[in-house]
Amino acid sequence: MEQKPSKAAATDDPALVAAFEARIAAGESIEPKDWMPDRYRRQLTRMMSQHAHSEIVGMLPEGNWITRAPSLRRKMCLIAKVQDEAGHGLYIYCGTETLGTDRQTLVEQLLDGTAKYSSIFNYPTLTWADIGCIGWLVDGAAIVNQTVLAKASYGPYARAMIRICKEENFHKRQGYEIVATLATGTPAQKAMVQDALNRWWWPSLMMFGPSDKDSPNSAELLKWRVKRKTNDELRQRFVNLTVPQAQAVGLTFPDPDLKYDEASEDWKFGAIDWDEFFEVIKGNGPCNQDRIAARRKAHDEGQWVREASAAYAEKNAARSTEAA
Amino acid sequence: MTAPSVAGKREEIIANPLFEYLLRLGDDRLVLGHRMSEWCGHGPILEEDIAMANIALDLVGQGSALLKLAGETEGAGRDEDALAYFRSEPEFRNAQMLELPKGDFAFTMVRQFLFDAFSVLQWDALATCTFAPLAGIAAKALKEDRYHLRHSSDWMLRMGDGTEESHARAQKALNHLWRFTGELFESDAVDAAVHAQGIVVDLAAIQSRWQQTVFDVVGRATLAVPPAGATSSGGRRGRHTESLGHMLAEMQIVARSHPGAKW
Ligand SMILES: [Fe+2]
Ligand SMILES: [Fe+2]
Question: Is the CB of residue A315 less than 8 Å away from at least one CB of chain B?
Fold first, then answer.
Protein backbone atom coordinates (compact mmCIF):
# COMPACT_ATOMS: atom_id res chain seq x y z
CA MET A 1 0.00 0.00 0.00
CA GLU A 2 1.47 3.36 -0.95
CA GLN A 3 2.32 5.98 1.67
CA LYS A 4 0.28 9.10 1.91
CA PRO A 5 1.37 12.27 3.69
CA SER A 6 -1.93 12.50 5.56
CA LYS A 7 -1.49 8.97 6.85
CA ALA A 8 0.54 7.79 9.80
CA ALA A 9 3.22 5.13 9.47
CA ALA A 10 2.20 1.87 7.81
CA THR A 11 2.65 -0.05 11.04
CA ASP A 12 -0.32 1.35 12.82
CA ASP A 13 0.40 3.35 15.98
CA PRO A 14 -1.58 1.73 18.84
CA ALA A 15 -2.62 5.14 20.17
CA LEU A 16 -4.05 6.10 16.78
CA VAL A 17 -5.82 2.76 16.48
CA ALA A 18 -7.34 3.25 19.93
CA ALA A 19 -8.56 6.72 19.01
CA PHE A 20 -9.94 5.39 15.74
CA GLU A 21 -11.79 2.56 17.46
CA ALA A 22 -13.20 5.01 19.98
CA ARG A 23 -14.63 7.08 17.14
CA ILE A 24 -16.17 3.96 15.62
CA ALA A 25 -17.62 2.96 18.98
CA ALA A 26 -19.12 6.45 19.33
CA GLY A 27 -20.90 5.91 16.00
CA GLU A 28 -18.87 8.52 14.15
CA SER A 29 -18.44 8.32 10.42
CA ILE A 30 -14.91 7.93 9.00
CA GLU A 31 -14.14 10.26 6.10
CA PRO A 32 -11.44 9.93 3.38
CA LYS A 33 -9.01 12.42 4.99
CA ASP A 34 -9.28 10.85 8.45
CA TRP A 35 -6.60 8.55 9.77
CA MET A 36 -7.54 4.88 9.52
CA PRO A 37 -5.72 1.60 10.16
CA ASP A 38 -4.13 0.06 7.14
CA ARG A 39 -6.25 -3.05 7.42
CA TYR A 40 -9.42 -0.98 7.55
CA ARG A 41 -8.42 0.77 4.35
CA ARG A 42 -7.62 -2.53 2.67
CA GLN A 43 -10.78 -4.28 3.85
CA LEU A 44 -12.93 -1.42 2.59
CA THR A 45 -11.11 -1.20 -0.71
CA ARG A 46 -11.70 -4.93 -1.15
CA MET A 47 -15.39 -4.77 -0.22
CA MET A 48 -16.19 -1.64 -2.19
CA SER A 49 -14.35 -2.69 -5.33
CA GLN A 50 -16.00 -6.12 -5.22
CA HIS A 51 -19.31 -4.36 -4.94
CA ALA A 52 -18.52 -2.08 -7.89
CA HIS A 53 -17.34 -5.03 -10.00
CA SER A 54 -20.56 -6.89 -9.16
CA GLU A 55 -22.64 -3.99 -10.47
CA ILE A 56 -20.66 -4.02 -13.71
CA VAL A 57 -20.56 -7.77 -14.28
CA GLY A 58 -24.23 -7.90 -13.28
CA MET A 59 -25.04 -5.87 -16.39
CA LEU A 60 -24.15 -8.88 -18.55
CA PRO A 61 -26.70 -11.55 -17.53
CA GLU A 62 -29.49 -8.99 -17.62
CA GLY A 63 -28.25 -7.24 -20.74
CA ASN A 64 -28.55 -10.68 -22.35
CA TRP A 65 -32.36 -10.19 -22.44
CA ILE A 66 -32.69 -6.54 -23.46
CA THR A 67 -32.94 -7.42 -27.14
CA ARG A 68 -35.57 -10.09 -26.46
CA ALA A 69 -37.74 -8.41 -23.83
CA PRO A 70 -41.31 -9.37 -24.73
CA SER A 71 -42.95 -5.94 -24.51
CA LEU A 72 -41.77 -2.41 -25.11
CA ARG A 73 -42.46 -1.43 -21.52
CA ARG A 74 -40.39 -4.34 -20.21
CA LYS A 75 -37.63 -3.51 -22.67
CA MET A 76 -37.47 0.06 -21.41
CA CYS A 77 -37.55 -0.99 -17.75
CA LEU A 78 -34.71 -3.43 -18.36
CA ILE A 79 -32.56 -0.91 -20.24
CA ALA A 80 -33.16 1.56 -17.41
CA LYS A 81 -32.24 -1.07 -14.81
CA VAL A 82 -29.01 -2.05 -16.52
CA GLN A 83 -28.21 1.65 -16.88
CA ASP A 84 -28.81 2.10 -13.14
CA GLU A 85 -26.38 -0.73 -12.41
CA ALA A 86 -23.73 0.99 -14.52
CA GLY A 87 -24.38 4.13 -12.49
CA HIS A 88 -23.99 2.17 -9.25
CA GLY A 89 -20.70 0.75 -10.47
CA LEU A 90 -19.41 4.18 -11.41
CA TYR A 91 -20.51 5.67 -8.11
CA ILE A 92 -18.89 2.95 -6.01
CA TYR A 93 -15.67 3.05 -8.07
CA CYS A 94 -15.51 6.76 -7.27
CA GLY A 95 -16.10 5.96 -3.60
CA THR A 96 -13.30 3.39 -3.68
CA GLU A 97 -10.95 5.95 -5.22
CA THR A 98 -11.29 8.03 -2.03
CA LEU A 99 -9.37 5.22 -0.31
CA GLY A 100 -6.41 5.75 -2.62
CA THR A 101 -6.80 3.22 -5.46
CA ASP A 102 -7.84 4.57 -8.85
CA ARG A 103 -10.53 3.11 -11.07
CA GLN A 104 -8.13 1.97 -13.77
CA THR A 105 -6.26 -0.21 -11.27
CA LEU A 106 -9.51 -1.66 -9.98
CA VAL A 107 -10.78 -2.42 -13.48
CA GLU A 108 -7.49 -4.12 -14.34
CA GLN A 109 -7.89 -6.33 -11.28
CA LEU A 110 -11.31 -7.37 -12.53
CA LEU A 111 -10.06 -8.07 -16.05
CA ASP A 112 -7.00 -10.06 -14.98
CA GLY A 113 -9.16 -12.19 -12.71
CA THR A 114 -7.59 -11.20 -9.39
CA ALA A 115 -10.64 -9.27 -8.15
CA LYS A 116 -13.82 -11.00 -7.07
CA TYR A 117 -17.41 -10.09 -7.78
CA SER A 118 -20.70 -11.54 -6.62
CA SER A 119 -20.82 -15.25 -7.48
CA ILE A 120 -24.48 -14.96 -8.54
CA PHE A 121 -23.55 -13.36 -11.84
CA ASN A 122 -21.71 -16.49 -12.91
CA TYR A 123 -25.04 -18.21 -13.48
CA PRO A 124 -26.72 -18.00 -16.89
CA THR A 125 -29.98 -16.22 -17.70
CA LEU A 126 -31.85 -18.83 -19.71
CA THR A 127 -35.39 -17.53 -20.08
CA TRP A 128 -37.23 -14.24 -19.76
CA ALA A 129 -38.40 -15.34 -16.30
CA ASP A 130 -34.79 -15.12 -15.12
CA ILE A 131 -35.04 -11.36 -15.49
CA GLY A 132 -37.96 -11.37 -13.06
CA CYS A 133 -36.13 -13.63 -10.63
CA ILE A 134 -32.95 -11.56 -10.72
CA GLY A 135 -34.83 -8.38 -9.91
CA TRP A 136 -36.86 -10.04 -7.19
CA LEU A 137 -34.18 -12.24 -5.57
CA VAL A 138 -30.81 -10.75 -6.49
CA ASP A 139 -31.76 -7.11 -6.09
CA GLY A 140 -33.82 -8.21 -3.09
CA ALA A 141 -30.79 -9.82 -1.47
CA ALA A 142 -28.69 -6.79 -2.35
CA ILE A 143 -31.18 -4.56 -0.55
CA VAL A 144 -30.98 -6.67 2.63
CA ASN A 145 -27.18 -6.36 2.49
CA GLN A 146 -27.09 -2.70 1.56
CA THR A 147 -29.67 -1.47 4.04
CA VAL A 148 -27.22 -2.56 6.71
CA LEU A 149 -24.18 -1.23 4.82
CA ALA A 150 -25.89 2.16 4.73
CA LYS A 151 -24.93 2.34 8.42
CA ALA A 152 -21.32 1.27 7.82
CA SER A 153 -18.60 3.37 9.39
CA TYR A 154 -16.98 4.63 6.18
CA GLY A 155 -18.90 7.75 5.14
CA PRO A 156 -18.55 7.57 1.33
CA TYR A 157 -19.65 3.93 1.28
CA ALA A 158 -22.58 4.46 3.63
CA ARG A 159 -23.82 7.42 1.59
CA ALA A 160 -23.45 5.48 -1.67
CA MET A 161 -25.56 2.68 -0.18
CA ILE A 162 -28.39 5.03 0.78
CA ARG A 163 -28.57 6.40 -2.72
CA ILE A 164 -28.20 3.04 -4.45
CA CYS A 165 -30.71 1.27 -2.22
CA LYS A 166 -33.52 3.50 -3.44
CA GLU A 167 -32.93 2.29 -6.99
CA GLU A 168 -32.49 -1.34 -5.94
CA ASN A 169 -35.91 -1.18 -4.30
CA PHE A 170 -37.35 -0.07 -7.59
CA HIS A 171 -35.57 -2.93 -9.38
CA LYS A 172 -36.89 -5.41 -6.88
CA ARG A 173 -40.47 -4.19 -7.34
CA GLN A 174 -40.16 -4.48 -11.11
CA GLY A 175 -38.65 -7.95 -10.82
CA TYR A 176 -41.39 -9.16 -8.55
CA GLU A 177 -43.99 -7.66 -10.88
CA ILE A 178 -42.55 -9.75 -13.74
CA VAL A 179 -42.58 -12.85 -11.54
CA ALA A 180 -46.16 -12.24 -10.40
CA THR A 181 -47.32 -11.63 -13.98
CA LEU A 182 -45.76 -14.87 -15.19
CA ALA A 183 -46.97 -16.85 -12.18
CA THR A 184 -50.55 -15.86 -12.95
CA GLY A 185 -50.13 -16.16 -16.72
CA THR A 186 -50.35 -19.04 -19.18
CA PRO A 187 -49.25 -22.54 -18.15
CA ALA A 188 -46.04 -22.07 -20.15
CA GLN A 189 -45.29 -18.80 -18.39
CA LYS A 190 -45.98 -20.36 -15.03
CA ALA A 191 -43.63 -23.25 -15.75
CA MET A 192 -41.00 -20.80 -16.95
CA VAL A 193 -41.04 -18.77 -13.76
CA GLN A 194 -41.08 -21.81 -11.47
CA ASP A 195 -38.06 -23.17 -13.31
CA ALA A 196 -36.29 -19.83 -12.93
CA LEU A 197 -37.00 -19.72 -9.20
CA ASN A 198 -35.70 -23.28 -8.86
CA ARG A 199 -32.43 -22.25 -10.48
CA TRP A 200 -31.93 -18.88 -8.76
CA TRP A 201 -33.01 -19.69 -5.21
CA TRP A 202 -29.90 -21.38 -3.86
CA PRO A 203 -27.41 -19.06 -5.59
CA SER A 204 -29.36 -16.14 -4.08
CA LEU A 205 -28.90 -17.54 -0.59
CA MET A 206 -25.19 -17.93 -1.30
CA MET A 207 -24.99 -14.20 -2.09
CA PHE A 208 -24.73 -13.48 1.63
CA GLY A 209 -21.42 -15.31 1.77
CA PRO A 210 -20.23 -18.30 3.77
CA SER A 211 -21.68 -19.15 7.12
CA ASP A 212 -20.21 -17.02 9.92
CA LYS A 213 -18.19 -19.88 11.29
CA ASP A 214 -16.40 -20.09 7.90
CA SER A 215 -16.05 -16.35 7.41
CA PRO A 216 -12.64 -15.48 8.87
CA ASN A 217 -12.87 -11.69 8.57
CA SER A 218 -16.28 -11.29 10.12
CA ALA A 219 -15.28 -10.41 13.69
CA GLU A 220 -12.93 -7.61 12.74
CA LEU A 221 -15.32 -6.25 10.13
CA LEU A 222 -18.11 -6.16 12.70
CA LYS A 223 -15.90 -4.44 15.29
CA TRP A 224 -14.99 -1.70 12.81
CA ARG A 225 -18.58 -1.38 11.66
CA VAL A 226 -17.59 -2.27 8.13
CA LYS A 227 -20.27 -4.90 8.51
CA ARG A 228 -23.21 -4.54 10.87
CA LYS A 229 -24.78 -8.00 10.81
CA THR A 230 -23.43 -11.47 10.24
CA ASN A 231 -23.89 -13.28 6.94
CA ASP A 232 -26.25 -15.78 8.53
CA GLU A 233 -28.42 -13.09 10.12
CA LEU A 234 -28.80 -11.31 6.80
CA ARG A 235 -29.51 -14.55 4.94
CA GLN A 236 -32.26 -15.43 7.42
CA ARG A 237 -33.79 -11.98 7.09
CA PHE A 238 -33.86 -12.39 3.30
CA VAL A 239 -35.52 -15.81 3.50
CA ASN A 240 -38.15 -14.51 5.93
CA LEU A 241 -38.97 -11.64 3.59
CA THR A 242 -39.02 -13.71 0.41
CA VAL A 243 -40.95 -16.85 1.29
CA PRO A 244 -44.32 -15.10 1.76
CA GLN A 245 -43.82 -13.26 -1.54
CA ALA A 246 -43.50 -16.56 -3.39
CA GLN A 247 -46.49 -17.99 -1.54
CA ALA A 248 -48.59 -15.01 -2.58
CA VAL A 249 -48.22 -15.97 -6.24
CA GLY A 250 -48.29 -19.74 -5.79
CA LEU A 251 -44.62 -20.54 -6.39
CA THR A 252 -42.66 -23.18 -4.51
CA PHE A 253 -39.01 -23.39 -3.44
CA PRO A 254 -36.60 -26.17 -4.40
CA ASP A 255 -36.07 -26.99 -0.72
CA PRO A 256 -38.01 -29.84 0.93
CA ASP A 257 -36.73 -28.74 4.34
CA LEU A 258 -38.14 -25.23 4.17
CA LYS A 259 -40.60 -24.76 7.03
CA TYR A 260 -41.82 -22.10 9.42
CA ASP A 261 -40.50 -22.26 12.96
CA GLU A 262 -43.01 -20.88 15.45
CA ALA A 263 -40.50 -20.35 18.24
CA SER A 264 -37.99 -18.25 16.32
CA GLU A 265 -40.56 -16.92 13.80
CA ASP A 266 -38.05 -17.82 11.09
CA TRP A 267 -38.41 -19.76 7.88
CA LYS A 268 -35.85 -22.54 8.43
CA PHE A 269 -34.17 -23.69 5.23
CA GLY A 270 -32.15 -26.74 4.22
CA ALA A 271 -28.39 -27.09 3.93
CA ILE A 272 -26.65 -24.86 1.40
CA ASP A 273 -24.27 -26.59 -1.01
CA TRP A 274 -21.13 -24.69 -0.08
CA ASP A 275 -19.03 -26.85 -2.35
CA GLU A 276 -20.86 -25.34 -5.27
CA PHE A 277 -20.33 -21.86 -3.86
CA PHE A 278 -16.58 -22.30 -3.47
CA GLU A 279 -16.31 -23.84 -6.93
CA VAL A 280 -18.01 -20.78 -8.44
CA ILE A 281 -15.80 -18.44 -6.41
CA LYS A 282 -12.74 -20.34 -7.66
CA GLY A 283 -13.81 -19.64 -11.23
CA ASN A 284 -15.61 -22.87 -12.07
CA GLY A 285 -19.17 -21.56 -12.24
CA PRO A 286 -21.15 -21.94 -15.45
CA CYS A 287 -20.37 -18.44 -16.75
CA ASN A 288 -17.20 -17.18 -15.02
CA GLN A 289 -15.14 -17.34 -18.18
CA ASP A 290 -17.85 -15.85 -20.38
CA ARG A 291 -18.37 -12.91 -18.05
CA ILE A 292 -14.71 -11.96 -17.84
CA ALA A 293 -14.25 -12.58 -21.55
CA ALA A 294 -17.14 -10.23 -22.31
CA ARG A 295 -15.68 -7.54 -20.05
CA ARG A 296 -12.25 -7.94 -21.64
CA LYS A 297 -13.68 -7.78 -25.13
CA ALA A 298 -15.54 -4.56 -24.33
CA HIS A 299 -12.39 -3.15 -22.74
CA ASP A 300 -10.10 -4.15 -25.63
CA GLU A 301 -12.50 -3.01 -28.33
CA GLY A 302 -12.93 0.27 -26.47
CA GLN A 303 -9.22 0.94 -26.34
CA TRP A 304 -9.13 3.03 -29.52
CA VAL A 305 -12.18 4.98 -28.34
CA ARG A 306 -10.52 5.91 -25.05
CA GLU A 307 -7.31 6.80 -26.88
CA ALA A 308 -9.20 9.00 -29.33
CA SER A 309 -10.92 10.76 -26.48
CA ALA A 310 -7.62 11.41 -24.70
CA ALA A 311 -5.87 12.55 -27.89
CA TYR A 312 -8.68 14.95 -28.73
CA ALA A 313 -8.70 16.39 -25.21
CA GLU A 314 -4.95 16.90 -25.42
CA LYS A 315 -5.17 18.68 -28.79
CA ASN A 316 -7.96 20.84 -27.47
CA ALA A 317 -5.99 21.80 -24.39
CA ALA A 318 -3.00 22.69 -26.59
CA ARG A 319 -5.25 24.79 -28.85
CA SER A 320 -6.73 26.73 -25.95
CA THR A 321 -3.24 27.41 -24.55
CA GLU A 322 -2.16 28.75 -27.94
CA ALA A 323 -5.23 30.94 -28.13
CA ALA A 324 -4.64 32.35 -24.64
CA MET B 1 -60.91 -20.97 -70.69
CA THR B 2 -58.54 -18.04 -70.38
CA ALA B 3 -55.28 -18.13 -68.48
CA PRO B 4 -55.31 -16.32 -65.11
CA SER B 5 -53.96 -12.81 -65.39
CA VAL B 6 -50.42 -12.26 -64.15
CA ALA B 7 -50.62 -8.50 -64.33
CA GLY B 8 -50.79 -6.89 -60.87
CA LYS B 9 -50.77 -3.42 -59.43
CA ARG B 10 -47.63 -1.34 -59.81
CA GLU B 11 -48.13 0.31 -56.43
CA GLU B 12 -50.26 -0.32 -53.39
CA ILE B 13 -52.92 2.25 -52.67
CA ILE B 14 -52.30 3.52 -49.18
CA ALA B 15 -55.54 3.25 -47.27
CA ASN B 16 -54.57 5.13 -44.12
CA PRO B 17 -51.71 7.54 -44.77
CA LEU B 18 -51.63 8.91 -41.22
CA PHE B 19 -51.20 5.40 -39.82
CA GLU B 20 -48.50 4.78 -42.39
CA TYR B 21 -46.76 8.04 -41.54
CA LEU B 22 -46.74 7.29 -37.80
CA LEU B 23 -45.34 3.82 -38.47
CA ARG B 24 -42.44 5.38 -40.35
CA LEU B 25 -41.70 7.77 -37.50
CA GLY B 26 -42.10 5.08 -34.87
CA ASP B 27 -40.17 2.33 -36.62
CA ASP B 28 -37.21 4.66 -37.19
CA ARG B 29 -36.90 5.20 -33.44
CA LEU B 30 -37.71 1.68 -32.33
CA VAL B 31 -35.23 0.06 -34.70
CA LEU B 32 -32.42 2.49 -33.96
CA GLY B 33 -33.13 2.30 -30.22
CA HIS B 34 -32.97 -1.48 -30.39
CA ARG B 35 -29.63 -1.36 -32.18
CA MET B 36 -28.30 1.09 -29.60
CA SER B 37 -29.53 -1.11 -26.74
CA GLU B 38 -27.32 -3.92 -28.05
CA TRP B 39 -24.38 -1.99 -26.57
CA CYS B 40 -25.72 -2.25 -23.05
CA GLY B 41 -22.92 -3.63 -20.85
CA HIS B 42 -20.39 -3.65 -23.70
CA GLY B 43 -19.52 0.03 -24.08
CA PRO B 44 -15.96 1.34 -24.40
CA ILE B 45 -16.14 3.37 -21.17
CA LEU B 46 -18.52 3.08 -18.25
CA GLU B 47 -19.71 6.66 -18.73
CA GLU B 48 -20.49 5.86 -22.35
CA ASP B 49 -22.40 2.73 -21.36
CA ILE B 50 -24.65 4.98 -19.35
CA ALA B 51 -25.01 7.53 -22.15
CA MET B 52 -25.78 4.90 -24.79
CA ALA B 53 -28.37 3.23 -22.57
CA ASN B 54 -29.94 6.62 -22.11
CA ILE B 55 -30.15 7.23 -25.85
CA ALA B 56 -31.57 3.73 -26.41
CA LEU B 57 -34.15 4.35 -23.73
CA ASP B 58 -35.24 7.68 -25.23
CA LEU B 59 -35.53 6.19 -28.71
CA VAL B 60 -37.48 3.10 -27.67
CA GLY B 61 -39.70 5.40 -25.61
CA GLN B 62 -40.36 7.62 -28.62
CA GLY B 63 -40.97 4.56 -30.80
CA SER B 64 -43.40 3.17 -28.26
CA ALA B 65 -45.40 6.42 -28.03
CA LEU B 66 -45.55 6.72 -31.82
CA LEU B 67 -46.62 3.11 -32.38
CA LYS B 68 -49.29 3.49 -29.70
CA LEU B 69 -50.62 6.53 -31.54
CA ALA B 70 -50.37 4.65 -34.84
CA GLY B 71 -52.44 1.82 -33.39
CA GLU B 72 -55.10 4.23 -32.18
CA THR B 73 -55.14 5.90 -35.58
CA GLU B 74 -55.56 2.56 -37.31
CA GLY B 75 -58.45 1.65 -35.04
CA ALA B 76 -58.04 -2.09 -35.51
CA GLY B 77 -57.24 -2.86 -31.87
CA ARG B 78 -53.47 -3.09 -32.30
CA ASP B 79 -51.41 -1.50 -29.54
CA GLU B 80 -47.72 -0.61 -29.61
CA ASP B 81 -46.68 -4.14 -28.67
CA ALA B 82 -48.83 -5.74 -31.35
CA LEU B 83 -47.19 -3.42 -33.87
CA ALA B 84 -43.65 -3.92 -32.58
CA TYR B 85 -43.76 -7.66 -32.04
CA PHE B 86 -46.25 -9.05 -34.51
CA ARG B 87 -45.32 -7.37 -37.78
CA SER B 88 -42.84 -8.99 -40.16
CA GLU B 89 -39.97 -7.35 -42.06
CA PRO B 90 -42.01 -6.12 -45.07
CA GLU B 91 -44.44 -4.39 -42.70
CA PHE B 92 -41.70 -2.34 -41.05
CA ARG B 93 -41.36 1.21 -42.36
CA ASN B 94 -38.03 2.40 -40.94
CA ALA B 95 -35.29 3.84 -43.12
CA GLN B 96 -32.70 1.16 -43.98
CA MET B 97 -29.81 3.01 -42.38
CA LEU B 98 -31.28 2.44 -38.92
CA GLU B 99 -31.52 -1.34 -39.14
CA LEU B 100 -27.90 -2.01 -40.13
CA PRO B 101 -25.99 -4.01 -37.49
CA LYS B 102 -24.40 -1.85 -34.83
CA GLY B 103 -20.86 -2.40 -36.10
CA ASP B 104 -18.03 -0.85 -34.12
CA PHE B 105 -18.39 2.20 -31.91
CA ALA B 106 -17.53 4.46 -34.86
CA PHE B 107 -20.30 2.98 -37.00
CA THR B 108 -22.82 3.31 -34.17
CA MET B 109 -21.90 6.91 -33.39
CA VAL B 110 -21.62 8.15 -36.98
CA ARG B 111 -25.04 6.66 -37.74
CA GLN B 112 -26.43 8.20 -34.58
CA PHE B 113 -25.03 11.57 -35.59
CA LEU B 114 -26.44 11.39 -39.13
CA PHE B 115 -29.85 10.45 -37.79
CA ASP B 116 -29.85 12.89 -34.84
CA ALA B 117 -29.06 15.78 -37.18
CA PHE B 118 -32.11 14.79 -39.23
CA SER B 119 -34.35 13.93 -36.30
CA VAL B 120 -34.10 17.27 -34.51
CA LEU B 121 -35.19 19.02 -37.70
CA GLN B 122 -38.05 16.59 -38.22
CA TRP B 123 -39.27 17.02 -34.62
CA ASP B 124 -38.86 20.76 -34.86
CA ALA B 125 -41.26 20.80 -37.80
CA LEU B 126 -43.67 18.30 -36.24
CA ALA B 127 -43.80 20.13 -32.91
CA THR B 128 -45.95 22.79 -34.58
CA CYS B 129 -48.19 20.49 -36.60
CA THR B 130 -51.94 20.70 -36.05
CA PHE B 131 -52.30 17.03 -35.10
CA ALA B 132 -52.02 17.64 -31.37
CA PRO B 133 -51.03 14.14 -30.14
CA LEU B 134 -48.12 14.08 -32.57
CA ALA B 135 -47.10 17.65 -31.76
CA GLY B 136 -46.92 16.63 -28.10
CA ILE B 137 -44.67 13.64 -28.79
CA ALA B 138 -42.50 15.82 -31.05
CA ALA B 139 -41.98 18.55 -28.46
CA LYS B 140 -40.74 16.05 -25.87
CA ALA B 141 -38.64 14.09 -28.36
CA LEU B 142 -37.04 17.27 -29.70
CA LYS B 143 -35.52 17.96 -26.29
CA GLU B 144 -34.18 14.42 -26.05
CA ASP B 145 -32.75 14.39 -29.55
CA ARG B 146 -31.03 17.74 -29.09
CA TYR B 147 -29.08 16.11 -26.30
CA HIS B 148 -28.38 13.06 -28.49
CA LEU B 149 -27.12 15.32 -31.28
CA ARG B 150 -24.78 17.15 -28.93
CA HIS B 151 -23.48 13.82 -27.71
CA SER B 152 -22.96 12.28 -31.15
CA SER B 153 -21.46 15.52 -32.54
CA ASP B 154 -18.93 15.51 -29.71
CA TRP B 155 -17.96 11.97 -30.64
CA MET B 156 -17.64 12.93 -34.31
CA LEU B 157 -15.06 15.51 -33.25
CA ARG B 158 -13.25 13.18 -30.86
CA MET B 159 -13.08 10.37 -33.39
CA GLY B 160 -12.30 12.50 -36.43
CA ASP B 161 -9.75 14.68 -34.69
CA GLY B 162 -8.50 12.06 -32.23
CA THR B 163 -6.01 9.43 -33.33
CA GLU B 164 -5.16 8.08 -36.77
CA GLU B 165 -7.12 4.94 -36.00
CA SER B 166 -10.23 6.73 -34.77
CA HIS B 167 -10.12 9.03 -37.77
CA ALA B 168 -9.91 6.09 -40.16
CA ARG B 169 -12.74 4.24 -38.42
CA ALA B 170 -15.03 7.27 -38.44
CA GLN B 171 -14.31 7.99 -42.10
CA LYS B 172 -14.95 4.38 -43.04
CA ALA B 173 -18.29 4.42 -41.22
CA LEU B 174 -19.26 7.70 -42.83
CA ASN B 175 -18.40 6.38 -46.29
CA HIS B 176 -20.39 3.22 -45.69
CA LEU B 177 -23.44 5.00 -44.32
CA TRP B 178 -23.56 7.81 -46.84
CA ARG B 179 -25.56 5.97 -49.48
CA PHE B 180 -28.34 5.35 -46.96
CA THR B 181 -28.83 8.98 -45.94
CA GLY B 182 -30.84 10.02 -48.99
CA GLU B 183 -33.77 7.87 -47.91
CA LEU B 184 -34.38 10.15 -44.93
CA PHE B 185 -35.41 12.96 -47.27
CA GLU B 186 -37.52 11.05 -49.75
CA SER B 187 -41.17 11.98 -49.92
CA ASP B 188 -44.07 10.16 -51.51
CA ALA B 189 -47.85 10.00 -51.56
CA VAL B 190 -47.97 9.43 -47.79
CA ASP B 191 -46.25 12.74 -47.10
CA ALA B 192 -48.53 14.50 -49.53
CA ALA B 193 -51.61 12.97 -47.92
CA VAL B 194 -50.69 13.87 -44.33
CA HIS B 195 -49.81 17.36 -45.51
CA ALA B 196 -53.51 17.79 -46.16
CA GLN B 197 -54.13 16.69 -42.55
CA GLY B 198 -51.96 19.45 -41.12
CA ILE B 199 -48.68 17.57 -40.90
CA VAL B 200 -46.39 19.83 -42.86
CA VAL B 201 -42.77 18.82 -43.06
CA ASP B 202 -40.71 20.42 -45.81
CA LEU B 203 -38.21 17.64 -46.47
CA ALA B 204 -36.29 19.63 -49.08
CA ALA B 205 -35.71 22.42 -46.58
CA ILE B 206 -34.79 19.90 -43.90
CA GLN B 207 -32.29 18.30 -46.25
CA SER B 208 -30.45 21.53 -46.87
CA ARG B 209 -30.36 22.37 -43.16
CA TRP B 210 -29.22 18.82 -42.40
CA GLN B 211 -26.38 19.23 -44.90
CA GLN B 212 -25.29 22.44 -43.19
CA THR B 213 -25.08 20.69 -39.81
CA VAL B 214 -23.43 17.57 -41.17
CA PHE B 215 -20.92 19.39 -43.39
CA ASP B 216 -20.02 21.69 -40.52
CA VAL B 217 -19.40 18.91 -37.98
CA VAL B 218 -17.70 16.61 -40.48
CA GLY B 219 -15.41 19.49 -41.47
CA ARG B 220 -14.54 20.37 -37.88
CA ALA B 221 -13.88 16.70 -37.24
CA THR B 222 -11.32 16.87 -40.08
CA LEU B 223 -13.29 14.19 -41.92
CA ALA B 224 -14.31 14.31 -45.57
CA VAL B 225 -17.88 14.40 -46.83
CA PRO B 226 -18.16 11.34 -49.08
CA PRO B 227 -18.84 11.96 -52.77
CA ALA B 228 -22.39 11.50 -54.00
CA GLY B 229 -22.81 8.03 -55.42
CA ALA B 230 -25.15 5.09 -55.40
CA THR B 231 -28.07 5.32 -53.01
CA SER B 232 -30.01 2.70 -51.16
CA SER B 233 -33.60 3.03 -50.05
CA GLY B 234 -36.90 1.23 -49.85
CA GLY B 235 -37.55 0.94 -46.12
CA ARG B 236 -40.56 3.26 -46.26
CA ARG B 237 -42.24 0.72 -48.55
CA GLY B 238 -41.09 -2.30 -46.56
CA ARG B 239 -38.05 -3.13 -48.70
CA HIS B 240 -35.24 -3.71 -46.27
CA THR B 241 -31.69 -4.95 -46.07
CA GLU B 242 -31.02 -8.51 -44.99
CA SER B 243 -30.18 -7.41 -41.46
CA LEU B 244 -33.68 -6.36 -40.38
CA GLY B 245 -35.03 -9.91 -40.45
CA HIS B 246 -32.34 -11.12 -38.07
CA MET B 247 -32.92 -8.21 -35.76
CA LEU B 248 -36.67 -8.84 -35.64
CA ALA B 249 -36.19 -12.57 -35.17
CA GLU B 250 -34.33 -11.82 -31.97
CA MET B 251 -36.55 -8.98 -30.83
CA GLN B 252 -39.81 -10.84 -31.39
CA ILE B 253 -38.91 -14.39 -30.37
CA VAL B 254 -40.34 -14.41 -26.85
CA ALA B 255 -43.49 -12.45 -27.66
CA ARG B 256 -44.23 -14.60 -30.72
CA SER B 257 -43.57 -17.84 -28.87
CA HIS B 258 -46.41 -17.02 -26.48
CA PRO B 259 -49.20 -15.44 -28.54
CA GLY B 260 -51.85 -13.82 -26.36
CA ALA B 261 -49.68 -13.89 -23.23
CA LYS B 262 -49.32 -10.83 -21.01
CA TRP B 263 -45.90 -9.76 -19.76
FE1 LIG C 1 -27.09 -2.09 -8.36
FE1 LIG D 1 -30.26 -3.32 -9.09
Answer: yes
